[in-house]
Protein backbone atom coordinates (compact mmCIF):
# COMPACT_ATOMS: atom_id res chain seq x y z
CA UNK A 1 0.00 0.00 0.00
CA UNK A 2 2.81 2.39 0.85
CA UNK A 3 6.07 2.63 -1.03
CA UNK A 4 9.44 2.69 0.71
CA UNK A 5 11.44 5.87 0.45
CA UNK A 6 14.96 6.58 1.59
CA UNK A 7 15.72 10.22 2.30
CA UNK A 8 18.31 9.47 4.96
CA UNK A 9 21.14 10.62 2.71
CA UNK A 10 19.72 14.11 2.28
CA UNK A 11 21.76 15.37 5.25
CA UNK A 12 21.07 18.80 6.70
CA UNK A 13 19.11 20.90 4.25
CA UNK A 14 16.84 23.92 4.47
CA UNK A 15 13.81 23.44 6.75
CA UNK A 16 11.21 23.91 4.01
CA UNK A 17 12.96 21.35 1.83
CA UNK A 18 12.96 18.83 4.69
CA UNK A 19 9.23 19.39 5.18
CA UNK A 20 8.65 18.74 1.47
CA UNK A 21 10.53 15.42 1.76
CA UNK A 22 8.45 14.50 4.80
CA UNK A 23 5.19 15.37 3.06
CA UNK A 24 6.25 13.40 -0.02
CA UNK A 25 6.81 10.33 2.17
CA UNK A 26 3.39 10.85 3.75
CA UNK A 27 1.72 10.87 0.34
CA UNK A 28 3.28 7.57 -0.78
CA UNK A 29 0.22 5.37 -0.51
CA UNK A 30 -1.64 3.48 -3.22
CA UNK A 31 -4.95 1.63 -3.37
CA UNK A 32 -5.15 -1.74 -5.14
CA UNK A 33 -8.61 -2.15 -6.65
CA UNK A 34 -8.34 -5.94 -6.26
CA UNK A 35 -7.86 -5.71 -2.51
CA UNK A 36 -11.09 -5.74 -0.46
CA UNK A 37 -11.94 -2.16 0.40
CA UNK A 38 -12.59 -3.17 4.02
CA UNK A 39 -8.87 -4.01 4.35
CA UNK A 40 -8.05 -0.35 3.79
CA UNK A 41 -10.55 0.64 6.43
CA UNK A 42 -8.81 -1.70 8.90
CA UNK A 43 -5.39 -0.53 7.77
CA UNK A 44 -6.40 3.08 8.46
CA UNK A 45 -7.47 2.16 11.99
CA UNK A 46 -4.08 0.57 12.69
CA UNK A 47 -2.28 3.47 11.02
CA UNK A 48 -3.86 5.84 13.55
CA UNK A 49 -2.99 3.42 16.34
CA UNK A 50 0.69 3.58 15.42
CA UNK A 51 0.61 7.35 14.88
CA UNK A 52 -0.73 7.75 18.42
CA UNK A 53 2.19 5.70 19.77
CA UNK A 54 4.74 7.75 17.83
CA UNK A 55 3.14 10.97 19.07
CA UNK A 56 3.20 9.76 22.68
CA UNK A 57 6.86 8.77 22.38
CA UNK A 58 7.82 12.13 20.89
CA UNK A 59 8.68 10.77 17.43
CA UNK A 60 6.94 13.63 15.64
CA UNK A 61 8.30 12.81 12.19
CA UNK A 62 6.80 9.33 12.12
CA UNK A 63 3.51 10.54 13.63
CA UNK A 64 3.31 13.26 10.97
CA UNK A 65 3.98 10.76 8.15
CA UNK A 66 1.27 8.34 9.33
CA UNK A 67 -1.32 11.07 9.91
CA UNK A 68 -0.62 12.38 6.42
CA UNK A 69 -0.94 8.88 4.91
CA UNK A 70 -4.23 8.40 6.71
CA UNK A 71 -5.61 11.64 5.30
CA UNK A 72 -4.28 10.88 1.80
CA UNK A 73 -5.90 7.44 1.90
CA UNK A 74 -9.38 8.51 2.96
CA UNK A 75 -9.64 11.97 1.41
CA UNK A 76 -8.15 11.09 -1.96
CA UNK A 77 -7.09 7.52 -2.77
CA UNK A 78 -9.97 5.41 -1.41
CA UNK A 79 -12.35 7.01 -3.93
CA UNK A 80 -10.48 5.17 -6.70
CA UNK A 81 -11.56 1.77 -5.36
CA UNK A 82 -14.47 0.21 -7.30
CA UNK A 83 -16.20 -0.76 -4.03
CA UNK A 84 -15.94 2.72 -2.53
CA UNK A 85 -19.73 3.03 -2.54
CA UNK A 86 -20.06 0.22 0.00
CA UNK A 87 -18.06 2.12 2.62
CA UNK A 88 -19.26 5.67 1.93
CA UNK A 89 -20.90 5.93 5.33
CA UNK A 90 -17.73 4.80 7.14
CA UNK A 91 -15.59 7.17 5.06
CA UNK A 92 -17.95 10.01 5.86
CA UNK A 93 -17.39 9.39 9.58
CA UNK A 94 -13.66 9.16 8.97
CA UNK A 95 -13.62 12.47 7.11
CA UNK A 96 -15.37 14.13 10.06
CA UNK A 97 -12.69 12.68 12.36
CA UNK A 98 -10.02 13.99 10.00
CA UNK A 99 -11.50 17.49 10.02
CA UNK A 100 -12.12 17.67 13.77
CA UNK A 101 -9.07 15.83 15.15
CA UNK A 102 -6.43 14.61 12.74
CA UNK A 103 -5.94 17.68 10.58
CA UNK A 104 -5.47 20.08 13.55
CA UNK A 105 -3.02 17.61 15.14
CA UNK A 106 -1.09 17.29 11.88
CA UNK A 107 -0.85 21.08 11.48
CA UNK A 108 0.53 21.41 15.02
CA UNK A 109 3.08 18.71 14.23
CA UNK A 110 4.05 20.54 11.03
CA UNK A 111 4.72 23.74 13.00
CA UNK A 112 6.74 21.86 15.64
CA UNK A 113 8.82 20.07 13.03
CA UNK A 114 9.45 23.26 11.07
CA UNK A 115 10.63 25.02 14.23
CA UNK A 116 12.86 22.06 15.08
CA UNK A 117 14.31 21.91 11.57
CA UNK A 118 14.94 25.68 11.62
CA UNK A 119 16.85 25.38 14.90
CA UNK A 120 18.91 22.47 13.55
CA UNK A 121 19.65 24.40 10.37
CA UNK A 122 20.78 27.49 12.29
CA UNK A 123 23.06 25.34 14.43
CA UNK A 124 24.44 23.74 11.28
CA UNK A 125 25.15 27.14 9.71
CA UNK A 126 26.76 28.45 12.93
CA UNK A 127 28.98 25.37 13.15
CA UNK A 128 29.93 25.73 9.50
CA UNK A 129 30.84 29.41 10.00
CA UNK A 130 32.89 28.62 13.12
CA UNK A 131 34.82 25.98 11.19
CA UNK A 132 35.45 28.45 8.36
CA UNK A 133 36.88 30.98 10.84
CA UNK A 134 39.09 28.30 12.44
CA UNK A 135 40.40 27.24 9.04
CA UNK A 136 41.21 30.88 8.15
CA UNK A 137 43.15 31.26 11.40
CA UNK A 138 45.04 28.01 10.74
CA UNK A 139 45.96 29.24 7.26
CA UNK A 140 47.18 32.58 8.69
CA UNK A 141 49.34 30.71 11.21
CA UNK A 142 50.79 28.53 8.42
CA UNK A 143 51.61 31.67 6.44
CA UNK A 144 53.27 33.29 9.46
CA UNK A 145 55.40 30.17 9.96
CA UNK A 146 56.42 30.21 6.29
CA UNK A 147 57.39 33.88 6.65
CA UNK A 148 59.50 33.16 9.74
CA UNK A 149 61.24 30.32 7.88
CA UNK A 150 62.06 32.62 4.96
CA UNK A 151 63.49 35.22 7.34
CA UNK A 152 65.70 32.64 9.06
CA UNK A 153 67.01 31.39 5.72
CA UNK A 154 67.81 34.92 4.54
CA UNK A 155 69.60 35.73 7.83
CA UNK A 156 71.76 32.59 7.76
CA UNK A 157 72.55 32.62 4.06
CA UNK A 158 71.90 28.89 3.74
CA UNK A 159 68.88 26.90 4.74
CA UNK A 160 69.12 25.50 8.25
CA UNK A 161 68.98 21.71 8.50
CA UNK A 162 68.04 21.88 12.17
CA UNK A 163 64.32 22.31 12.86
CA UNK A 164 63.47 25.69 14.33
CA UNK A 165 61.98 24.15 17.45
CA UNK A 166 65.10 22.03 18.23
CA UNK A 167 67.59 23.70 20.63
CA UNK A 168 71.12 22.18 20.79
CA UNK A 169 73.33 22.94 23.78
CA UNK A 170 77.09 22.50 23.22
CA UNK A 171 79.42 22.07 26.19
CA UNK A 172 82.80 23.55 25.12
CA UNK A 173 84.57 21.75 27.99
CA UNK A 174 83.45 18.36 26.82
CA UNK A 175 85.11 17.73 23.45
CA UNK A 176 84.64 14.46 21.50
CA UNK A 177 87.42 11.87 21.73
CA UNK A 178 88.46 8.97 19.51
CA UNK A 179 86.42 5.80 20.05
CA UNK A 180 87.79 2.86 22.00
CA UNK A 181 88.86 0.44 19.25
CA UNK A 182 88.36 -2.48 21.62
CA UNK A 183 84.65 -1.88 21.61
CA UNK A 184 84.43 -2.47 17.86
CA UNK A 185 85.26 -6.14 18.36
CA UNK A 186 82.07 -6.55 20.39
CA UNK A 187 79.70 -5.28 17.71
CA UNK A 188 77.30 -7.94 16.39
CA UNK A 189 76.90 -7.84 12.59
CA UNK A 190 73.86 -9.21 10.67
CA UNK A 191 75.38 -12.62 9.94
CA UNK A 192 76.21 -13.04 13.61
CA UNK A 193 72.59 -12.75 14.84
CA UNK A 194 71.16 -15.98 16.32
CA UNK A 195 68.48 -18.02 14.63
CA UNK A 196 65.00 -18.55 16.03
CA UNK A 197 66.15 -21.84 17.50
CA UNK A 198 69.04 -20.15 19.35
CA UNK A 199 67.99 -16.69 20.37
CA UNK A 200 70.46 -16.22 23.23
CA UNK A 201 73.85 -14.56 22.71
CA UNK A 202 75.68 -14.88 26.02
CA UNK A 203 77.58 -11.86 27.08
CA UNK A 204 76.65 -9.68 24.13
CA UNK A 205 73.85 -7.77 25.82
CA UNK A 206 72.77 -6.60 22.36
CA UNK A 207 69.57 -8.66 22.03
CA UNK A 208 66.62 -7.40 24.03
CA UNK A 209 64.24 -10.03 25.44
CA UNK A 210 60.97 -10.48 23.47
CA UNK A 211 58.37 -7.90 24.41
CA UNK A 212 55.68 -9.27 26.67
CA UNK A 213 52.15 -9.68 25.31
CA UNK A 214 50.96 -7.03 27.80
CA UNK A 215 53.48 -4.56 26.50
CA UNK A 216 52.45 -5.27 22.91
CA UNK A 217 48.80 -4.84 23.83
CA UNK A 218 49.58 -1.53 25.56
CA UNK A 219 51.49 -0.32 22.54
CA UNK A 220 48.65 -1.34 20.21
CA UNK A 221 46.09 0.35 22.39
CA UNK A 222 48.13 3.54 22.56
CA UNK A 223 48.58 3.59 18.78
CA UNK A 224 44.81 3.89 18.11
CA UNK A 225 43.55 7.28 16.97
CA UNK A 226 41.86 9.42 19.56
CA UNK A 227 38.51 9.13 17.73
CA UNK A 228 36.47 6.22 16.48
CA UNK A 229 36.08 6.26 12.70
CA UNK A 230 33.11 3.92 12.96
CA UNK A 231 31.18 6.39 15.12
CA UNK A 232 27.99 7.47 13.36
CA UNK A 233 27.42 11.18 12.85
CA UNK A 234 25.19 13.00 15.30
CA UNK A 235 22.56 13.37 12.57
CA UNK A 236 21.34 9.80 13.00
CA UNK A 237 17.78 9.00 11.85
CA UNK A 238 17.49 5.23 12.22
CA UNK A 239 14.23 5.64 14.17
CA UNK A 240 12.52 7.36 11.23
CA UNK A 241 10.16 5.94 8.63
CA UNK A 242 12.22 8.02 6.18
CA UNK A 243 14.88 5.31 6.41
CA UNK A 244 12.85 3.14 4.05
CA UNK A 245 13.94 -0.04 5.86
CA UNK A 246 11.76 -2.63 7.61
CA UNK A 247 11.24 -2.17 11.31
CA UNK A 248 12.44 -4.97 13.60
CA UNK A 249 9.78 -7.52 14.62
CA UNK A 250 10.22 -9.29 17.98
CA UNK A 251 8.81 -12.84 18.12
CA UNK A 252 8.28 -14.58 21.50
CA UNK A 253 10.42 -17.69 21.66
CA UNK A 254 7.53 -20.02 22.55
CA UNK A 255 5.26 -18.88 19.67
CA UNK A 256 5.67 -21.99 17.52
CA UNK A 257 5.45 -24.46 20.41
CA UNK A 258 2.24 -22.87 21.74
CA UNK A 259 0.67 -22.70 18.27
CA UNK A 260 1.50 -26.34 17.46
CA UNK A 261 -0.19 -27.42 20.70
CA UNK A 262 -3.42 -25.61 19.88
CA UNK A 263 -3.22 -26.97 16.29
CA UNK A 264 -2.49 -30.55 17.41
CA UNK A 265 -6.04 -31.87 16.94
CA UNK A 266 -6.16 -30.61 13.36
CA UNK A 267 -2.59 -31.71 12.64
CA UNK A 268 -3.38 -35.28 13.70
CA UNK A 269 -6.14 -35.24 11.05
CA UNK A 270 -3.83 -33.73 8.43
CA UNK A 271 -5.75 -30.42 8.48
CA UNK A 272 -4.11 -26.99 8.42
CA UNK A 273 -4.62 -24.48 11.24
CA UNK A 274 -4.10 -20.73 10.97
CA UNK A 275 -3.96 -17.74 13.29
CA UNK A 276 -3.39 -13.97 13.14
CA UNK A 277 -0.24 -12.49 14.67
CA UNK A 278 -0.98 -9.29 16.55
CA UNK A 279 0.96 -6.99 18.83
CA UNK A 280 2.06 -3.43 19.40
CA UNK A 281 4.57 -0.76 18.42
CA UNK A 282 7.21 0.65 20.77
CA UNK A 283 10.24 2.82 19.98
CA UNK A 284 9.89 2.12 16.25
CA UNK A 285 10.02 -1.65 16.79
CA UNK A 286 7.17 -4.14 16.49
CA UNK A 287 6.36 -6.74 19.14
CA UNK A 288 4.20 -9.80 18.49
CA UNK A 289 2.26 -10.49 21.69
CA UNK A 290 -0.84 -12.46 20.64
CA UNK A 291 -2.02 -15.24 18.36
CA UNK A 292 -5.70 -14.75 17.54
CA UNK A 293 -7.16 -18.01 16.27
CA UNK A 294 -10.33 -17.23 14.29
CA UNK A 295 -13.12 -19.54 13.31
CA UNK A 296 -11.87 -21.34 10.20
CA UNK A 297 -12.23 -24.11 7.69
CA UNK A 298 -9.14 -26.18 6.99
CA UNK A 299 -8.04 -28.84 4.49
CA UNK A 300 -4.74 -30.72 4.16
CA UNK A 301 -3.29 -27.86 2.11
CA UNK A 302 -5.33 -24.73 2.89
CA UNK A 303 -7.08 -22.82 5.64
CA UNK A 304 -9.72 -20.10 5.32
CA UNK A 305 -10.71 -17.75 8.13
CA UNK A 306 -14.35 -16.95 8.92
CA UNK A 307 -16.07 -14.06 10.73
CA UNK A 308 -13.09 -11.70 10.50
CA UNK A 309 -15.11 -9.01 12.29
CA UNK A 310 -14.54 -10.98 15.51
CA UNK A 311 -10.78 -10.57 15.03
CA UNK A 312 -11.20 -6.83 14.51
CA UNK A 313 -13.31 -6.53 17.66
CA UNK A 314 -10.59 -8.20 19.74
CA UNK A 315 -7.87 -6.03 18.24
CA UNK A 316 -9.88 -2.86 18.87
CA UNK A 317 -10.55 -3.83 22.47
CA UNK A 318 -6.86 -4.54 23.13
CA UNK A 319 -5.42 -1.84 20.83
CA UNK A 320 -3.51 -4.47 18.83
CA UNK A 321 -2.10 -4.10 15.33
CA UNK A 322 -1.85 -6.90 12.75
CA UNK A 323 1.74 -8.15 12.28
CA UNK A 324 1.16 -11.18 10.05
CA UNK A 325 -0.16 -14.69 10.28
CA UNK A 326 0.89 -18.20 11.25
CA UNK A 327 -0.25 -21.57 9.90
CA UNK A 328 0.70 -25.23 9.80
CA UNK A 329 1.71 -27.54 6.98
CA UNK A 330 0.79 -30.86 8.63
CA UNK A 331 2.41 -33.13 6.05
CA UNK A 332 4.58 -30.76 3.99
CA UNK A 333 7.74 -28.73 4.48
CA UNK A 334 7.85 -25.05 5.45
CA UNK A 335 7.32 -22.88 2.35
CA UNK A 336 4.69 -20.57 0.84
CA UNK A 337 2.32 -22.25 -1.61
CA UNK A 338 0.66 -20.25 -4.39
CA UNK A 339 -2.41 -19.81 -2.17
CA UNK A 340 -0.18 -18.76 0.76
CA UNK A 341 1.52 -16.17 -1.45
CA UNK A 342 -1.80 -14.51 -2.22
CA UNK A 343 -2.90 -14.70 1.41
CA UNK A 344 0.29 -13.06 2.61
CA UNK A 345 0.16 -10.39 -0.09
CA UNK A 346 -2.85 -8.78 1.59
CA UNK A 347 -1.00 -8.69 4.92
CA UNK A 348 2.25 -7.29 3.52
CA UNK A 349 0.53 -4.63 1.42
CA UNK A 350 -1.05 -3.24 4.58
CA UNK A 351 2.03 -3.71 6.80
CA UNK A 352 5.42 -4.07 5.01
CA UNK A 353 6.91 -5.89 8.04
CA UNK A 354 4.11 -8.52 8.21
CA UNK A 355 5.42 -12.07 8.72
CA UNK A 356 4.17 -15.40 7.40
CA UNK A 357 5.24 -18.08 9.89
CA UNK A 358 4.90 -21.63 8.57
CA UNK A 359 5.19 -24.56 11.01
CA UNK A 360 5.94 -27.99 9.51
CA UNK A 361 5.66 -30.43 12.46
CA UNK A 362 6.33 -33.55 10.36
CA UNK A 363 9.77 -32.16 9.48
CA UNK A 364 10.24 -30.21 12.73
CA UNK A 365 10.98 -27.01 10.81
CA UNK A 366 9.65 -23.44 10.84
CA UNK A 367 9.88 -20.77 8.16
CA UNK A 368 9.63 -17.00 8.65
CA UNK A 369 8.75 -15.57 5.24
CA UNK A 370 7.92 -12.35 3.41
CA UNK A 371 7.31 -11.65 -0.27
CA UNK A 372 10.40 -10.19 -1.90
CA UNK A 373 9.77 -6.42 -1.59
CA UNK A 374 11.09 -5.43 -5.02
CA UNK A 375 9.51 -8.20 -7.09
CA UNK A 376 7.33 -10.79 -5.36
CA UNK A 377 4.96 -8.32 -3.70
CA UNK A 378 4.12 -6.51 -6.94
CA UNK A 379 3.98 -9.74 -8.95
CA UNK A 380 1.47 -11.43 -6.64
CA UNK A 381 -0.57 -8.23 -6.30
CA UNK A 382 -0.99 -8.22 -10.08
CA UNK A 383 -1.72 -11.96 -10.38
CA UNK A 384 -5.43 -12.52 -11.06
CA UNK A 385 -5.46 -16.31 -10.72
CA UNK A 386 -6.99 -18.02 -7.70
CA UNK A 387 -6.66 -21.40 -6.07
CA UNK A 388 -3.48 -23.43 -6.57
CA UNK A 389 -1.64 -22.36 -9.72
CA UNK A 390 1.98 -22.23 -10.87
CA UNK A 391 4.23 -19.18 -10.38
CA UNK A 392 7.75 -18.64 -11.72
CA UNK A 393 10.55 -19.34 -9.26
CA UNK A 394 13.13 -16.98 -10.74
CA UNK A 395 13.39 -14.28 -9.54
CA UNK A 396 12.20 -15.57 -6.14
CA UNK A 397 8.72 -14.49 -5.05
CA UNK A 398 9.37 -14.96 -1.33
CA UNK A 399 12.34 -15.04 1.02
CA UNK A 400 13.33 -15.71 4.61
CA UNK A 401 12.56 -12.64 6.71
CA UNK A 402 15.69 -10.86 7.94
CA UNK A 403 13.98 -8.29 10.18
CA UNK A 404 13.01 -10.61 13.06
CA UNK A 405 14.45 -11.16 16.51
CA UNK A 406 13.50 -14.15 18.64
CA UNK A 407 12.83 -13.16 22.24
CA UNK A 408 13.41 -16.04 24.63
CA UNK A 409 12.03 -14.09 27.60
CA UNK A 410 8.68 -13.04 26.07
CA UNK A 411 5.65 -15.36 26.19
CA UNK A 412 2.96 -15.47 23.50
CA UNK A 413 -0.70 -15.10 24.49
CA UNK A 414 -3.51 -16.94 22.69
CA UNK A 415 -7.06 -15.73 21.99
CA UNK A 416 -8.94 -18.72 20.55
CA UNK A 417 -12.16 -17.63 18.84
CA UNK A 418 -12.95 -21.16 17.68
CA UNK A 419 -14.50 -22.04 21.04
Which key phrases capture this entry?
15% strand; single chain; 11 strands; alpha/beta; 42% helix; 11 helices; disordered N terminus
Written overview of the protein:
The protein is built from 11 helices and 11 strands. It is extended and about 105 Å long. The strands form 2 sheets. Strands 1, 2, 3, 6, 7, 8, 9, 10 and 11 form a 9-stranded mixed beta sheet that branches. 42% of the residues lie in helices and 15% in strands. The chain is α/β, with parallel strands linked by helices.
Tell me the Rg in angstroms. 35 Å
Structural class: alpha/beta
Point out poorly predicted stretches: 3-10, 190-236
> How much helix is in the residues?
40-55%
Element-by-element helix/strand order = HHHHHHEHHEEEEHEHEEHEEE
Main sheet: strands, sense, barrel: 9 strands, mixed
Distance between the termini: 34 Å
Q: Please, what is the average pLDDT? A: 83
- What is the beta-strand fraction? 15-25%
Counting DSSP E segments of at least 2 residues, the number of strands comes to: 11
Number of helices: 11
How would you describe the shape? extended
Furnish the topology, listing elements before pairings.
Blueprint: H1 15-26, H2 37-57, H3 60-75, H4 88-156, H5 181-184, H6 213-222, E1 249-252, H7 255-262, H8 264-268, E2 274-282, E3 285-293, E4 295-299, E5 302-306, H9 308-318, E6 321-328, H10 338-350, E7 355-360, E8 365-371, H11 376-382, E9 398-400, E10 404-407, E11 413-416
Parallel strand pairs: 1-3, 1-10, 3-11, 6-7
Antiparallel strand pairs: 2-3, 2-6, 4-5, 7-8, 8-9
Helix pairs in contact: 1-3, 1-4, 2-3, 3-4
